[in-house]
Amino acid sequence: MPHALLADPATAHAASAHAASAHAVSAHEAAAHAVSVLAAEGGATETVDPSGPVAQLIIAAVIGIVVIIALITWLKVHPFIALTIGALGVGIGAGLAPDKAVTSFGNGFGATMTSVGILVGLGSMFGKMLVDSGAADRVVDTLVRRSSKAALPWTMALIGALIGLPMFFEVGLVLLIPIIVLVAKRSDVPIMKIAVPALVGLSTMHAFVPPHPGPLVAISTVGANLGTTLAFGIVLAIPVIVLAGPVFARFAARWVDIPAPDLFGSRGGSGSGPQDPAHDGREARRGPATQDTASLPHGKSDFTRVISEPRSPSFAVALVGILLPVVLMLAQAIREATVPDASGSWVSLLDFLGSPMIAIGIAAVYAMVFFAIGGGMDRTAVSKSLESALPPVAGVLLIVGAGGGFKQVLIDTGIGGVIADAVKDSGISVLLVAWVVSALVRVATGSATVATVTAAGIMAPIAHDLSSPMTSLLVLAIGAGSVFLSHVNDAGFWLVKGYLNTTVGQTFKTWTMLECLISVFGLAGVMLAGVFIQ
After folding, report:
1. CA 532 to CA 468: how far, in whole Å?
2. What is the mean pLDDT of residues 283-297?
3. Residues 167, 173, 174, 177: is their CA dihedral positive or negative?
């Protein structure tokens, strides 16, 4: 943190008269006078007079976080309400006037929604079109069909990662489960060798790679560069997926040797379990029935088949759509890293296309045109698909916005500066602190999104002194901590248990273990990168 400015003229006069002894003042005592923190927008610094003594600030922050966790876990209050109550309580408890606490929260909420809300909405629309058009089906079917039995775990990890790039975790999970079950049944491969790699690919992308809400809000909160974080996240995700996916799947298949559950009798058919989630969309895309007559010698008809297959975009069209925003954002990040001082029309064009809103917006328009054409969707179907994409993410957006409000309250009260000074003076790695804070909130609340927005808010003032690459690593450390130790307070735990028909103990041995491996391997990768990047 930059040197703190003193709060009042009397204190300033005393400090100038005793400059020789000023160096002996501890970081906590300096924070009692004033702190210099990261401003809400633009990455600039401003001097913020603390709203109360250091002890009051720390007590208010601790009580506020405990209240948030208690409301979510004990009273089962929605995280948006819990974060709002906790943030306002922290502000008032730290000495802000009630109206100033509300203003601070509103400013943070608005700034976060401006930077994140549009991206989440566009990303959700793209993901819905990916499913409803059959593009996701096409990618999965093509990759599985071309894989040998030995390569299936690796293929499923790739499928999980590809589906995880544009889709929210819950949506991707619902899409992947029938694929996991049917591939295991048809290939006669133990289901855990199929399920674990796919779930690891999905969860890793959810934790590390934009445009998922968690990484996006962390990037916005700590002021990281999205393109750099995206590049680092993809590089980090590869070894994490390999180790926690196909490699760990060999052990998981021995620990939990169970048959594939009888959820789906056929692709879209009626089994004893739930309906294939993609069934309705698949039926809607079926083209007109055609007859295929197979003839015997002498012109005698053997039988007539009625064929009516669902339409879907080609594999190439689907893959281009999934990778398009990633390529655009990475190209802009590479340009910034290699030729930062370049100018000209090509630089302006690349920066425009690589900006997150434009890149994801282009992908959404691409899906509306090419996914719709390939999937046989008319304008009404496209409109219905886009409209249905938004309600499921409304809760996520409110949580993300409330996390931004909580962050701003921490800054405006001066609590952020106190935390930053304490961490800096402790000698502990900032990356490790970020992971621990995120992991603790995750274990307590069961929500990766809540863990991310809370940890990012706490760590935001610390990020001001970090280089741009280190700030991106800070985002990834928070993301790694946000998936640690999924257990009975996590909805994902029960979804996986229910779909795979495992016991609670078996779910701990597989799902909980793979989430821990993603988190720990992710932390190890971030810490290793931090040695070489300052």
Report:
1. 14
2. 49
3. positive
